Amino acid sequence: MTNNALRFPAEWEPQSAVLIAWPNADTDWADRLGEVEETYIALVAAITRFQPALICVADDDVQAYARARLSSARIDMSRVRFIDAPYDDTWLRDSGPITLKREDGGFRLLDFRFTGWGGKFDASQDDLLVERLHEQGVFADSERESIDFALEGGGIETDGAGTLLTTWRCLHERHPTLSRDEITAKLSAWLRQERVLWLDHGYLEGDDTDAHIDTLARFAAVDAIVYQGCDDPSDSHYAELQAMGAELATLRTRDGQPYRLFELPWAQPIIDEDRRLAASYANFLIVDGAVLMPAYGDAADAAAQAVLAQAFPDREIVAVPCRPLIWQNGSLHCVTMQLPRGVVA
């Protein structure tokens, strides 16, 4: 099979479903389960307005409970499918499948090693998730490729046309013995990319991921990037995010043109027990016909919605309350994985 026979689709391309995992008392959400369940109910309600939701559940009791909560919220349950699969936690952006499309209409599920963001947390169940879902027949006309290389879905962005965007901080932390050229070659081969654009700046306090790109900068089209800005010189993020904005301005499309850049506003600091939480508006999810945007109950929510409406003029922008998610240092995109159209059996 040649390189041209596989392609890594952009998030805005047609989808089958969005994959998530329901939080329960055996996950890190145990201490604030009630709060985060409300976010998941709102998330499933938003997803199912546009397409199906596939929900991993740890056991029959969790499934029965989740079904009851979602049904009572008057969610269209014909668009909800439950899948029994054990998991350590609910960050499926990083433990779920990275799906490539074959020219013949089939799919290849890339199953990279998930190490709990460099060994910070136990991830033994999460690392088996793609294999277990594949064995259960969740995916149609698909082959699974196990890759012994630590890579998380939140660490990479593609425009669907051969350009990958990522951060050096994250990939260097995972693979300190490899050079940038070596990692570029590996990512290009596995993900079928013609070029890799690296960012050297950008981070969020309270972020466990070592600067995942999906908290910082995202493709909105092959010639457009949405990114998290910071306009407060007194904020600890100001210098880094300003430097990241300057880096993005130097990047060029494959046609040699500057990218159209959309700067997202900066939320006021959200502090929890003396700990700054990572509230990024860049952690949005694109679904069929809409963009689901994390909202934090901040005055900047409306401004972020307006920026995304400019970047995605043909999509509805739907705010989902995500303040409970950032208690565990992630947000809306981090807990979801879109599945391209045709891949769900």
Automatic annotation (TrEMBL):
Q: Which top EC class is given? A: hydrolase
User: What top-level branch of life does the organism fall under?
Assistant: Bacteria
User: Which Gene3D superfamilies does the UniProt entry name for this protein?
Assistant: L-arginine/glycine Amidinotransferase, Chain A
Keywords of the record, alphabetical order, are: Hydrolase
Q: Which GO terms describe its molecular function?
A: agmatine deiminase activity; protein-arginine deiminase activity
Enzyme nomenclature, EC number: 3.5.3.12
Instruction: Choose any GO biological process term that the UniProt entry carries and state it.
Output: putrescine biosynthetic process
Pfam families named among the record's database cross-references:
PAD_porph
Name-wise, this protein is: Agmatine deiminase
Highest classification ranks of the organism: Bacteria, Pseudomonadati, Pseudomonadota, Gammaproteobacteria, Lysobacterales
